[in-house]
Amino acid sequence: MKLSDLLKAIQPVQITGSTDMEITGVNIDSRLIEAGHLFMAMRGTQTDGHAYIPAAIEKGAVAILCEEWPEELKAGITYIQVKDSEDAVGKTATTFYGDPTSKMELVGVTGTNGKTTIATLLYDTFRYFGYKVGLISTVCNYIDDQPVPTEHTTPDPITLNRLLGEMADSGCKYAFMEVSSHSIAQKRISGLKFAGGIFTNLTRDHLDYHKTVENYLKAKKKFFDEMPKSAFSLTNLDDRNGLVMTQNTRSKVYTYSLRSLSDFKGKVLESHFEGMLLDFNNHELAVRFIGKFNASNLLAVFGAAVLLGKKEEDVLVALSTLHPVAGRFDAIRSPKGYTAIVDYAHTPDALVNVLNAIHGVLEGKGKVITVVGAGGNRDKGKRPIMAKESARLSDRVIITADNPRFEEPQDIINDMLAGLDKDDIQKTISIADRREAIKTACMLAQPGDVILVAGKGHENYQEIKGVKHHFDDKEELKAIMN
Fold first, then answer.
1. 430: annotated binding-site residue?
2. pLDDT of residue 276
3. CATH number (domain holding residue 82)
4. Residue 211 confidence class, pLDDT cut points 50, 70, 90
5. Is residue 405 part of an annotated ligand binding site?
6. Are residues 392 and 410 in the same domain?
7. Is 460 annotated as a binding residue?
8. 44, 78, 174, 304 — which has fewest CB within 10 A?
9. Does 153 count as an annotated binding residue?
């Protein structure tokens, strides 16, 4: 693509050199630069891309996009200065990869909890309808039925646009995408055209990055503020921030709720460990999901599918065929008569949702044993809250390691224990070894009891001192049960 065409979506402050040259690739990582590439220097959270301009030129970059004008301008290299390189990178990448989101319906899902479930179930629903569909999620990315491994909830702008370009080229008519607060704040989604956005809920998370809940809220809200007039915004009325999210959007606003009058109204009629009987907009349906939080997630899927033009009755049939997402309320029955549930819950609110769902099915007829930890090098403020909520809603609590990363597991456990009072401590033990913690929970469980193993869900590893070791909660439980 000609550099002059590539720059049409942005407004450079100044340009030095020719724009009448062919650009063979765009990148923000100088190590991936090849001859004929445009290197875009971004200020990252860890490093500043401007420091790598000389390295990019050495590797063959013919043009440089940057915020700061370099002290030395190399002959034969075109330099483009922009006010905001984060914004410019997304828009330039979108142009280079053929503006993929203008060729399909892209729906973004944002919120603290439920993003993966809603995005994945929308992907499953539209594949059920016979469409080619793309998915960008925490668990895995898909180009129709082809898996593409994922490192982040929302990839960097280059990876993201390349992926969306491949989806468009392979004939995907729809794409569903988790939109993280980091990706909104860092403008990774700049330049993408959304057909719709869904807001799930907002509770404490990622404060290691955003510093305050208000900043976290603003990052989520920005997604809806920038939604085009042609799009829909579907928001959860059961969350106190539901209408805050959409108050400045130009898009058409729709609501869903399990409690209030809304465009898409739901109700849980019956609940078992095998599934629920629900009422959506006065239609009954049976699903294989458990818990009010999952009823809310399914209601969001129902609403979004209808807003994308599907008939209510057809969507309900599709929902009745769906299976829970890997690592989300994954129930395993023990020969001993107890049930173990593996769930990704790694925030206080997610833990409360899962534990309330368990109590909703048990109705006081069994005990709840919770195995829980917290990730290292992440928001420390949520650790005591997670321990407190676990103790409040469980009969026994075992605090253990999750992904300690570069922290000592015992330090994380101590942070969690600090949230407990004397009564909580009486029913709590700490076992740093996660395998031993799960084994202990299984030894304590009696017929009719439920064990919740929280925090890792679909993850099949433990990250310790920068190294990922194979560890799968579900595998561990099955080995112990057998």
1. no
2. 94
3. 3.40.1390.10
4. low
5. yes
6. yes
7. no
8. 44
9. yes
Query: Structural domain tally of the chain?
Result: 3
Residue 54, domain extent:
3-96
Q: Give the 3-state secondary structure of 253-277.
A: EEEEECCCCCCEEEEEEEEECCEEE
Q: Which of 276, 301, 321 is the last residue of a domain?
A: 321
CATH code: domain of residue 368: 3.90.190.20
Q: Is 448 annotated for ligand binding? A: no
Q: What is the pLDDT of residues 250-285, one digit of tens each?
A: 999 999 999 999 999 999 999 888 899 999 999 999
426 marked as binding residue? no
pLDDT in the model for residue 204:
53
* 42 and 91 within one domain: yes
Asked if residue 34 belongs to a known ligand binding site, the reply is: no
226 is in an annotated binding site: no
Indicate which CATH number applies to the domain containing 184: 3.40.1190.10
Residues 253 and 215 in one domain: yes
Residue 16 is assigned to a ligand binding site: no
